[in-house]
Amino acid sequence: MASEPPNDSTPGCEAAPDAGAARPDFVRPALDYLRGVRAAGGAASGPPTFAWQKENLCEWARRLGLLLDPEAIVRRLGRGGQEHDIFHAGERVFKVTRSGMFGLSPGLEISLVSSGEDGRRFQLWEATPLEYLERLDLHNQLVPGLNVLEGVLVQADGDMAIVTSQPRFDIVPVTGPEIDAWFAAQGFAKIAESAYYRAADNLAIFDAHDKNVIRAGELLVPFDVIPCHPEGGFLQFIADTIRSGQTVKPQRTVSTTPRFP
Prior knowledge:
Layout: H1 27-39, H2 50-63, H3 70-74, E1 78-79, E2 84-89, E3 92-97, E4 104-110, E5 120-126, H4 129-142, E6 148-154, E7 160-167, H5 176-185, E8 189-192, E9 195-198, E10 203-206, E11 213-216, E12 219-222, E13 226-228, H6 232-244, E14 251-252
Parallel strand pairs: 5-14
Antiparallel strand pairs: 1-2, 2-3, 3-7, 4-5, 6-7, 8-9, 9-10, 10-13, 11-12
Helix pairs in contact: 1-2, 1-4
């Protein structure tokens, strides 16, 4: 992929992100905006829909000049991981959410099973834009300054994508035991394969396997993990799992219908 800065000169369109510009942190302002609009009565009762979240996030981006030019970005994209398409510019990697999806969000599902079996299961659900921003914010608390919200783009089919960037790292593989040891040193207990929990700040980390954690010098960097603040029955399940000394296996359910319409 090309390494020159994105073309921001397309007439009549908003600019693409500038790889050389100073990078203010818009993750928390975007998150606070969506939370604030809803708290002020800006949405119907019940969980905010995908459509409501997309509409309000686009309006926030429009007000701040953060609507990006899709033509200057989409033509440069290559396949990233499961959740993003990517391109490189200078010393940063730009990530664009794919196919109207906004990553994954962990939770707990209750299944009906025969007597004596535990029907509770970890699940990784399709996330909403609000949950995606919450994930970015928690990720930046784990690794300060890692993710920058560059803006939002509306694609030709009318769907919305969120554009973020991270520093460009040299990929140096790490092993599972090294990842376990790093999280243990940060005060986390292992709760499942590639999943950890720290009670001090109620922070759970999922998907922390060897493709999402890299070595940067002497440091390990979890650059594409899934953090969350568990609550309710999910939090109790984690506490029970740690107390029992057991670990559980999360089930990835990206083919399920999203929890919110």
